[in-house]
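Help!! Second protein's tokens look totally different from the first
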Amino acid sequence: MKDVTIIGGGISGLTAGIYAQLSGLQSEIYERHTIVGGQCTSWTRNGFHIDNCVHWMTGTNPKTELYQLWTDVGVLGNGQELLKHDYFLQVNIDGVKAHVWRDLNKMQDELLAIAPEDAKEIRSFIKAIKDFQAISIPALKPNEQMNFWDKIKMLSMIKALPVARKYGTMSIDDYIKRFKNHTIKALISNYLPKQYYVLATFFMYAMFTTGNADLPLGGSDMITNRMRDTYLSLGGEIHCRKKANKFVIENQRVTKVEFEDGSATETKNVICTTDPSVSFALLGETYMDAIFRKCYADKKSYPIFSEVNVYFSVETSIAHLPIMELFNCEPFEIANKTHSVLCMNNYADEPNFAPEGKGLMQILVVQYEEDYEYWNNLYTTDKEAYKQAKTALAKEIQSRLEKHYPELQGKLTEIECVTPKSFNRFTGAYKGSYMGFVQTPHVEKMTHTGIIDGLNNFHLAGQWLLTPGGLPNALITGRWAVQRLLQRENRLHDFCCKKK
């Protein structure tokens, strides 16, 4: 019997495993899929590499605590190259182009030239981003383990406080009403859900402009493989194709995990990193606490979102195209809703994602819970109709791509269409949500310790414990789960003892 049994081999599970091994705890990971990585995943189609996760990664600035975590788990450092672009996003509305430049002064000048009528709000927008550059996510310790000096260090972020107070009750949709120019509005809303609080936009652009949201060369595959290799090098064990079916609970302890294939393993401590909807199904719904019940029940305050991602191979190089572009197009329908904006992600900077002389692009469109229900109903009742809907959608998008990029006419081939149902089928994601609950204004931020009342040897970890989710929160909560486990056993001094 290992010291720690980890259910789920995504980013959080791998992180928990690495820190368990570094702390002298023998661990093993059980993963339902054929490979580890969870939602940080990629695969190959017709010689093209499909990356269905990372577009940018918070924690690439060496001065931050998150960078230390990414280094601990083997993702950064040791010569890992980062893609550092001059701009994060190009927006093109009716031919008027604007950019999220790394140089904020350059960005401000460009926006003022485009929309002098919005000058006052543009300057306030740029200032808000600059003030949010002071934010550095606390990642080394959970709040209850911080000492006085740990909290003093957080005062360095005080510059962002007035911005948070001024705009904290505004959604993106509320905020863009302050602007007249449609290109500026699109640049602020980008591809995030409109219900998101606008502070998310400030944060994302602040991280990019401080070098704290660059992209590791190799994307999801590199991240997962480096973490897997780090974990195995420390003596950890990974068991794939092992889908947990039930947690056996005796005397307030999870004593055994039963798997779908009929096997079982006895447990000393359990860290469960699966989607919480899966975790509570394994435990029994009675263990779901008030925090999660509230979030699942209040869909307006804590909505979820997903994407449709359509991938196209290109029979020529597309290095001349923007690295990411949001543009308007002729209206089209997905799940009985009308859309008129597409976001294109260009993988030309990744040398191994497409054969030489060819290109690969991803088109993403935001989806919500009701959209998931559409795709889920199609898949459940008529798989052939589901396939036909994906094919028809890809054709609609392709025609709009060829109109927007006329030089690509006849050179595009759809090679993959990922729907919210795809996220659910392959990773267990709740209703296809690839992140956690959306952080909306006027509601308390969702945070959870991962400790479940009535269970003494069980911890949750994963992106759903900290709004709004994503890779950094999966990483952080994996580390914190091990720290909390050791604290429960009065062994916190053993944390990372091998590293020390």
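Here's the second one for comparison:
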Amino acid sequence: MQLNIGESSAFDVIKDTYDYETCKEITEHGCVSGVAHDHIYYKDTVAFFDKYEDEIVTHISESLGDDVLTDLFRDADASLTHYKNAVTWCYIELVAMDIVDNKESQMRLPLHHTLINSLHLPFLLSG
């Protein structure tokens, strides 16, 4: 196995390309809306798929199941270009959901701790 030092993962590329607000828009409107600005055209989505195919397919399979990949191929009418585009968009949408969920859970955590600490309930502290 050869290490590719300096190579980014597909996840890192998406995380570095799209900020939280853009990821939120992706989750709300999908890549089809054009909000995933670096992954609009077939040349971009196909190149991304070709470079990160194993990571993309594994992530989708583990997150949604293998049937989703089969359905995407069927929906693409067996066009490899359309399939790669659909799989790339599916992957980007999944990663965007992860980014939004993580950010929002981080935003809630400090508030939760602040509320608990401000209650000063003796029975919580007596342990």
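Reply: Different proteins will give different token patterns, so don't panic. The chain has one domain: 11-118.
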